[in-house]
Amino acid sequence: MRLIPRNISQVLKIYFIGIIFFLSYRLLLFFSEFGRMDRNASAIDIFHSFLMGLRFDIVISSYILVLPYIVLTILELIKCNSNVLRAIIFYYIFILFSLSYLVCAIDIPYFSQFFSRFSITAFEWIDSPVFVSKMIIQEPRYWLYLIPLVISIIVFYKLLKNIINKYFNFKRSQNTYAEIIFSFFFIVIIFFGIRGRIEIKSPIRVGTAYFSNNAFLNQLGLNPNFTLIRSYLDSREEGNKRISLMDDHSAILNVQKYLNIKNLNNNFPLLREMHYNNANAVKPNVILIIMESMSAGKMKRHGNNNNLTPFLDSISNEGYYFENAYTSGIHTFNGIFSSLFSYPAIFRQHPMKGSEILKYHGIASVLREKQYSTVYFTTHDGQFDNVEGFLKANDFERVVSKQDYPSAEVKTTLGVPDDYMFRFSIPVLNGLSSKNKPFFAAFMTASDHGPYYIPGYFKPKSSEIKNQIVEYADYSLKKFISLSSKQKWFENTIFVFVADHGAAIDELYDMSLDYNHTPLIFYAPKIIKDKKVFSKIAGQIDIFPSIMGLLQLSYKNNTLGIDLFSEDRPYILFNADDKYGVIDDKWFLIVGKDKSVKLYKYRSKDVYNYASQQSEVVRKMKTYAESNLQAFQYVIRTKKQ
């Protein structure tokens, strides 16, 4: 009896050959673009990049081979030889692998031009096929990549022909039961190969390849067939379709007026040079804590009488507190993105999850330029929402996630409890502080989100689990500040607290204000002396510029956020999947994708729709919101972010 059934052994041979050719194209890309690699890259980093490439190559090979394997397995079990099926299987595999090699060949000059792996973006030039054809034909370098393409297709053809012929010409095994068992387990392995990861929360994503801060090595690990297919699938999703609320030019002009941009820059239309003259002698550390679902409506100071957040309430009186701050969206990824990069949410669009990971000039990038260390902490799988890959591509030197914690401390699919993440972070932050340079650390808590888990050592006062978990979340924050206060770096650290989004506590309007109304606290007992409550309208997108204002560090602000300590905004915009809201100190405007318009006096909880009587108010608020959304889409589409 053969140790491995023939249907498995022959498919494994095709896997091996296919992956060898993918490796050869990756090597070709590596050597042709060697100059792009950071000179500080280690041999281990290079090896890691190629190892990551193997994972993506297995994904593509598994997609191609899963159907032929199933057919070959059925033929093996029913003892069938068929010349027709032999031809179909051969040409199916040959054509798909040949097309995948074609994509790999095209990807090399494409990457050289755009520093991005091949994607559906390349087909945007299809409107000018003659121009593009001439450009390719007239560039001799492009023709060079035909040589490895032709060689790989010819060699693959011969090797595949030999494998398929041998399979059909050999006598069938009689050990059917053993074949069934082996074949079942192998199909499971193939599906794991398709998924690319064994973690429950997320399959393999583009961001999985981003293991370091080396932009070239991060992208080298990708397979261009994966990025092409992923970009096509992303483009088909309703949430990722481009908005058309007004023309781009008008939107940019409006936003420049709102932001008081006078020195216009054609390459970066949102750019403002922010100059500060009183930089701190010793740069403070910054810790940003993004709190899961921590609506302002859960706090006593905002009317909640259940005493759920005694700690958060207490520190809101010990620093700078913005009582009219709002998150950008209703999803965690909105909160992470807007807090760190100061751009709004656009309906269902997921800015961190695209097939191409864009580079933003966010807070981590700016502070790294100022010689800060950067780190991000999450409780669960870093690949969920593509967070880890996206942040590493955007100057976070390290992302601490589920894989870094002891497995015994992982309690649910959301990973470790909040207070454990905070306790785990202290030695990490001490290590950064020991480098004699400031650090920026961002935390994303998760406990205030189902499935709820409350450690046995915490005893809540409330009887309802949804209130108990808020108490625990508040306890965890207190624990972190208590631990931090014992560290040398505490006195020179600014802590910022904000929610990723709130919770639908008060559902008076179509968009619950509690879902976006967030506490926004700047807390630094040894730095902030003039404790103050601000009533001005503020947004999650203002956190980054406001931190820079507190630090008094000059920088280039290329975002839609403002420094809340020196600037004011007329409105703040927030977004849901199918509508957006705009708010000022009196009015609350809700505009649906179906063009419905509602205007309320939210301060008095008035549910009467004033839209028809206040058409000028509606016009101004609507123009403000749509200008900001359209301008944001324009800068990311044209890569001027």
Give a written overview of the molecule:
The chain is of the alpha/beta class and 641 residues long. It folds into two domains: 6-236, no CATH class; 277-505 and 514-568, Alkaline Phosphatase, subunit A, CATH 3.40.720.10. It contains 18 helices and 15 strands. It has helices spanning 6-32, 43-77, 83-114, 129-137, 140-144, 146-169, 176-195, 215-220, 224-236, 248-258, 310-315, 332-341, 363-369, 387-392, 418-433, 465-484, 543-551, 615-637, and strands spanning 272-274, 285-291, 320-326, 373-378, 398-400, 439-444, 493-499, 517-523, 532-534, 538-539, 555-557, 572-575, 579-583, 587-592, 597-601. Strands 2, 3, 4, 5, 6, 7, 8, 9 and 10 form a nine-stranded mixed sheet that branches. Helix 10 (248-258) packs across helix 18 (615-637). The radius of gyration is 28 Å and the shape is globular. The relative contact order is 0.12. The mean pLDDT is 89.
Question: Main β-sheet: number of strands, strand sense, barrel status?
Answer: 9 strands, mixed
Question: What is the CATH third-level topology name of the largest domain?
Answer: Alkaline Phosphatase, subunit A
CATH architecture of the largest domain: 3-Layer(aba) Sandwich
- Taken as a percent bin, the fraction of beta residues is 5-15%
State the helix count: 18
Task: Tally the beta strands.
Answer: 15
